Amino acid sequence: MAGEIIEVLDKKIYYTIAAVYILTMLTTIITNSIVILTFYKVRCLLTPSSLPILSLAIADLVLAVTVMPFGIVANANRIWLVSDFGCHWYAYGHTVVGFSSILHHGVIAVEAARKIVRGIRNAGARRRGMITTIVVVWAVVLVWGTMPLIGWSSYGPEGSGAVCSINWKSTDPTDVSFVMITFVLFLFIPVIIIMACYTAISYDLRRMARIAEKQWGRKAQMTIARVLAKKKSMWTGLIMFVAIFFVWMPYAIISFLSVIGTPEKIPPLAFALAAMFAKTSTFVNPLICFFWYHKFRDGTKRIYRNSKRMASLQKAWTTSCNEAACEIHLRTNSYPYHSPDFRQVR
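The structure corresponding to this sequence follows.
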């Protein structure tokens, strides 16, 4: 693949894809850096439920910095400049982060169900359990992503030919088995678990509302606050999952059709657009965190206000120090203009 000019699509389309990738990369870096900084500065936000969000933010940031530039250069030049290693690295990075994304949302759904339905309160145990779960998730996807590198399926050019991914179009039984198991493990099973969790949460919220209404009345403040707080927690996770599912679904459908159907009938442009749309998933979670999760938004705003206040104090301190230093300089280092000898000469 290295050194070959790619002519699958029109030159302008490659340039457009490269421009979109640049925008995606910059947006991903900015938004996920804000998420990481907010969690670092406002530690009270770093609950067991938010640890998967932080984990994904770190992964998306690393992906944007270390992997996305390869795709930008390849599309802009219509040539893969960094040998087969670059192809494998690009495909491996996107595969691992893509698989981890759906599993992380499964973890978020299960944690929400345990917290709301079962009412688990031990924050320390939940935190330790969540950290262990996240480590297991990363171990699974890192190992699974290496399978094409050691002979079970392979990584190669996709769609437009400019970037690489899993070899979805292969008809070899070994490659097909890998792809089908991948869909089962990283799409079908997680989606079923996620939907089951949010269905259980929804049912429990309705049950809780009925019980609270009997005890305190429909319009009692305790009834409203208790139900709304849990409903808000459920909707945050559900909206994140739906958004990720939405941006990945076109790519998943086209990839699945390539396996079970006739891949040559799928236009390269359709593959390229679906892949480009899927890559926007790297900044979807931060945007949802900011616009939907008011505590996170308040924390980010507080950091911004504090940074402006510190900048103002720094500026005032620097100005005052400069004025003091100037006065000291005039008093001690202005010879001969302020010396007795100079005045005597005059």
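The first helix runs from residue 11 to 41.
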